[in-house]
Amino acid sequence: MLAKRAVSLALHTRITARAFSSTLVSRDAGLATPKVNYEEKYAEKLQRRAQEQGKSVEQLRAELKEQERQRRLQKLKEESIKSSGMSESPLPAKSSAEPSSAASKPSASASSRKDSSPVKPLSSIFNLDKILETPHTSDQISVLWRAYHGSRSGGTGRGYLCAALPVETYEKMLDVAIKYPRFVIPVPRENAQVEEGSKEPAYEFYLMEWGFHGSPPEPPTSGDLFAQSKPSGNPQTSTILFTPLQEYKLRTSFATPYLVVTHYTDLAKTHGLVLLRGEITPSAAASSPSVGASDDGGRFMLSQQDAQLLAIHVQRFYLWNEGSGERAALLKAFHESPAEFKWEELLKHTDFSA
C-alpha cells in the first residue's frame, strides 16, 4: 500500500532507469566471508555464448535474468494452485461457435517446451491440432479463447485476462516496445492512507517490463510429418511483467510480478490473430497483497479491475496513432531524457475520470 507521501518520495528521484537497476546492500555485508564475483567468473562463457547467438552480453544477461524470473514465478504459481485446489487444465469451451472441441485438453506431449523460452506454450492451453484439423475463422478462435478463460476459477474467470488482437495492432505496439521496453503506470487507490486533510488522490505505481522471446514456428498446414520446416513468418512472442514500483525497489530482480501478460503469436501468420493472456499472481506467491486486491477475496495479488486497467494502458502508451502524441512523448522522455519526465503529466493521461 502506497500513500501519497510514498508516491512523492518514489518519484522525486525522477524515476531514472539507473535507479531501477540499482542493487541492494546485502544483509550479510558486515560478515567477513568473501563474496564470489560471478560476473568475472563467468564473463568468458557469457561472451562466447553471446557471440554464438549474435547478441551483446547485456542482451544475453537480460534474457537469462528474465527467464529465471519467469521460471520462479511459474513455480510459485504451481505451488499456489496446488495448495488452493485451483485447476489449470483446459475444459471444453462452450460457445455459439460449432468447433468447441478445439479448446479440449491437449496431449501431454504438447504441453512442454523443447526450447529455452520461459513462456508456457500455447499448445498447453489450446489444442492447436484440433484448430488446424477443422478450418476455424479468426472470429471462432476469438470466441473459443474468451470462453476458455471465462470458464476458469469455477466459471468466474477471475485471475485471468484475455483478448484477441489483430496482428497489425500488435506489430505496431511491438515496434515501440522494442525501443522503449520499460515504463511506469499509476493505479488509483481510493482506500490508501494519505496525509491528514489532503484531498489529493493516492496512486500505486507499477513498473512494466516487456520481454521478447523469438518467433514461434508456423503451425503445419499439411499432414506430412516429414515436411521440411521453413523460417517462421510470425512476429515475436512477448511478455509484459507488472510489478509494484515499491516492491521492485525493495527486491529488484527478486520482486514478484503481480500481473504477467503474454502475447501468443502462433496464429498470426495463418489467422491474423495475436492471442493475449493475462495471469494475475495468486496471493500465496507474493509478499503482500495489493491495496486493490480485496474484491477477489484475497486470492490474487491484484483485483480484476486493476489488471484490466494496466492492460488498457499498454495500448494507450504503446499503440501510437493520431492523438497519442503527448503519451508518446512521455514514453520517450522516460527513456531518453529522464530529467524531463514529469509524473504529474503522466497522471493526466491515466485518469479516466478526468
Secondary-structure map:
Elements: H1 4-11, H2 17-20, H3 38-41, H4 43-53, H5 57-84, H6 128-133, H7 138-150, H8 152-155, E1 160-166, H9 167-179, E2 182-189, E3 202-212, E4 238-244, H10 245-251, E5 259-264, H11 268-271, E6 273-280, H12 304-318, H13 325-336, H14 343-348
Structure description:
The chain is an alpha+beta fold and 354 residues long. The protein has 14 helices and six strands. It has helices at 4-11, 17-20, 38-41, 43-53, 57-84, 128-133, 138-150, 152-155, 167-179, 245-251, 268-271, 304-318, 325-336, 343-348; strands at 160-166, 182-189, 202-212, 238-244, 259-264, 273-280. A six-stranded antiparallel sheet has the order 1-6-5-4-3-2, sandwiched between helices. Helix 4 (43-53) crosses helix 5. The chain is globular, with a radius of gyration of 21 Å. It starts with a helix and ends in a 6-residue tail after the last helix. Residues 1-36, 83-87, 89-101 and 107-115 have low confidence and may be disordered.
pLDDT < 50 stretches: 1-36, 83-87, 89-101, 107-115
Count the DSSP helices: 14
Name the shape in a single word: globular
| Helix percent band | 25-40%
Radius of gyration: 21 Å
Give the N-to-C terminal Cα separation: 23 Å
Q: How many beta strands in the DSSP annotation?
A: 6
As an assembly, this protein is single chain
**What does the average pLDDT come to?**
75
Q: DSSP strand (E) fraction?
A: 5-15%
Based on helices, strands and strand pairing, what is the structural class? alpha+beta
Helix and strand sequence: HHHHHHHHEHEEEHEHEHHH
Q: What does the main sheet amount to?
A: 6 strands, antiparallel
Q: Record the strand order, biggest sheet.
A: 1-6-5-4-3-2
